[in-house]
Amino acid sequence: MSAPVKKESDTMTDLDQLCINTIRTLTLDAVQKAESGHPGLPLGAAPMAYVLWTKFLRHNPKNPKWENRDRFLLSAGHGSMLLYSLLYLTGYDLPFENSSDFASGVRKPQAILRMF
Q1: Burial of 13 per CB tally in 10 Å (0-12, 13-18, 19+)
Q2: Can you tell me the distance from the alpha carbon of 59 to that of 53, in angstroms, rounded to the nearest whole number?
Q3: Is the sign of the CA dihedral 101, 76, 25, 71 positive or negative?
């Protein structure tokens, strides 16, 4: 006999859902403002990325070059707003006012990753 399968709603708190929706909203706003990019990957991957980023990865926004930190690689360029949103919301020193520049290519994902 197998164990009962837990539904996402059984393990997610209201705060978790608010955080996921905030990632989605920031992404939509930035893509809209930049008039560039596609929000599909960040919208769909927000729950997975939120759980991975907040529950499993070891990182420190106050010391982003900490040698023992985990690395998060996102190879889909059109989903880079997901990474930007995660960095911003978890306290890294990134001004979100420039998120439309990031989405339109002024700030390339590689440049952001080199900072960390």
Answers
A1: exposed
A2: 9
A3: negative
Comparing 36-40, 42-46, 73-77, the range with the smallest average pLDDT is: 73-77
CA distance 98 to 84: 10
* Whole-angstrom distance, CA of residue 14 vs CA of residue 17: 5
Q: How confident is the model at residue 3 (pLDDT cuts 50, 70, 90)?
A: low
Task: Report CA-CA distances (Å) from 5 to 1, 8, 10, 56.
Answer: 12, 10, 10, 21
Q: How far is CA 72 from the centre of its chain?
A: 10
> CA nearest 83: which of 63, 58, 110, 101?
110
